[in-house]
Amino acid sequence: MERDGATQSLWQREEINYTEVNFVHNSKDIFDVIIIGAGITGLTTALCLQAAGKRCMVLEAHKVGFGTTSGTTAHLNTVLDNSYSKIIKNFGLENAIRTAEAADLAIQSIESFIAQYGIACNFTRCAAYLYATEEKEAKELQNMQEAFHQVGINSSYVHHIPGPMKFKKAVCVSGQARFHPTQYIKGLLKAYLELGGKIREKYLVKKVQEEDSFQRVLSADDGVYDAKHIVYATHTPPGIHPLTFKLTPYRSYVIAVELTNRKSYPNDLIYDLKEPFHYIRKAKDGESPVLIIGGEDHKTAHEINTVHNFQKLESFVRQHYSVQRKLYEWSSQFYESADGLPYIGYLSEKKNKFVATGFSGNGMIYGTLSGKIISDIIIKGKSKYQNLFSPSRVKPIAEFQSFVKESADVIKHFVSDRLSVDKLKNTVEIGKGEGRIVKYEGKKIAIYRDKEGELFALNPVCRHAGCIVQWNHAERSWDCPCHGTRYAIDGSLLNGPASTDLPSLKLE
Ligand code: FES
């Protein structure tokens, strides 16, 4: 299956094809709900709604699972990336207890979808171990353990962890799980289609237009769809929105290795307390076990040599395990909210648009929870978790309107030009397979030289709000440091919040 990068994740071996019996090219109907994005968030939402009798359409710009769902490591944990002490500080103890309860509900929901729809995805209940190797980390772990107790998470200090790492202090948390994410969403999709749900892939939404009693979704040239409600299951909502300023895009790195000793694979989830931390689990590659290690996170487009992050991960795993060979390496994007909890619920004052974003590294948990919350609001008019995760806690900042205008001007004023290849070759030294932002006659351009030596030039001004994109060497993509839009080598859009491609510059 396809994914939004040049590297291959372990989960991409799964082919997600479906018979297009439900395919509708250009419906004149008004759907109850259009869900934009076919990852775990979009498909969980769609299935919950369709199962409750709503008529749904899923619109996906690329293919099912193209985004972060096929790049996750699929830890299903209530431990969460943002510590409960931070959540208690920002939201109070009662809300932190509710957050822990919601995370547990997400795992239970996944388990019950699997049972109800017969989804084979290697779902395994397990524990999570957190370990500290230094005094500073041991103090942090002690704070975490106290906060676990305060919010009702079942955890205790232990003298043993299921890995060879030496540690000063360790905690075991029960009630966690792991699974195969693309097998899981394949099962969600199958169940959704069997219930009469509709889906279209390769449909990039360009605009959502408010009509009197419904909303009209338009692509560039490929038909329109109407619905009473719209759900953006696209991480950041497209365009410039107050939420745009409260989300920070990050990249995380993963490698999967075969170990020399089959007994060394841990059954449980393991986390250290480094900054950024490492996360470890086992999985299956076909019938063979593999060890997956993630970490080395950084803000999107804030590191030049992204290949180095894989090397650091490999050296970490070789330091602790006897590795037979490396099998996979991939990276993926996630979004941090400003205050430690995701934004799930109404996008605007108007009560017919929804958003689900800011999941941190807990996309499987919050994506599932988003499906439950948004479908409850649409079906029953409310959700128990509606206020806790409400996006309306983000207020528009004063500079918002001028930012929108200035961004439009930046994009408008960049005049694309024709470039002389000879002149470019004289001014720019760039190796095969490399990309770089260079200055050409006073203007910045994005240049990539392919393996055959051919040059490709793009206007590097991000189509979202005018920042300059940066080269991501590992994924062969142009990534925006401001809000995380990513573009392929040819400028085509990989993920928003922009909704158009980077213009290519003609080389003559
Ligand atoms: Fe906002 Fe590029 S993603 S300016």
Give an overview in words.
This protein is α+β, with helices and mostly antiparallel strands and 508 residues long. Among the domains are: 123-177 and 248-337, 2-Layer Sandwich (D-Amino Acid Oxidase, Chain A, domain 2); 421-495, Rieske Iron-sulfur Protein (3-layer Sandwich). Helix content is 25%, strand content 30%. It contains nine helices and 26 strands. It has helices spanning 40-51, 84-91, 93-117, 135-151, 181-194, 307-320, 363-380, 400-413, 421-427; strands spanning 30-36, 56-59, 75-76, 124-132, 155-157, 169-178, 198-200, 207-210, 215-218, 224-232, 247-259, 269-272, 279-285, 288-299, 323-337, 343-346, 353-357, 418-419, 434-440, 443-449, 455-458, 470-472, 477-479, 486-487, 493-495, 504-507. The strands form four sheets. Strands 3, 4, 5, 6, 11, 12, 13, 14 and 15 form a nine-stranded mixed sheet that branches. Strands 1, 2, 7, 8, 9, 10, 16 and 17 form an eight-stranded mixed sheet that branches. A five-stranded mixed sheet has the order 18-26-21-20-19. β19 and β20 (443-449) form a beta hairpin. α1 (40-51) packs parallel to α5 (181-194), α1 runs parallel beside α7 and α3 packs across α7 (363-380). The longest helix has 25 residues, at 93-117. The chain is globular. The mean pLDDT is 91.
What secondary-structure arrangement, pairings included, does this model have?
Blueprint: E1 30-36, H1 40-51, E2 56-59, E3 75-76, H2 84-91, H3 93-117, E4 124-132, H4 135-151, E5 155-157, E6 169-178, H5 181-194, E7 198-200, E8 207-210, E9 215-218, E10 224-232, E11 247-259, E12 269-272, E13 279-285, E14 288-299, H6 307-320, E15 323-337, E16 343-346, E17 353-357, H7 363-380, H8 400-413, E18 418-419, H9 421-427, E19 434-440, E20 443-449, E21 455-458, E22 470-472, E23 477-479, E24 486-487, E25 493-495, E26 504-507
Parallel strand pairs: 1-2, 1-10, 2-7, 4-12, 10-17, 18-26
Antiparallel strand pairs: 3-6, 4-6, 5-6, 8-9, 9-10, 11-14, 11-15, 12-13, 13-14, 16-17, 19-20, 20-21, 21-26, 22-23, 23-24, 24-25
Helix pairs in contact: 1-5, 1-7, 2-3, 3-7
Bound molecules: FE2/S2 (inorganic) cluster.
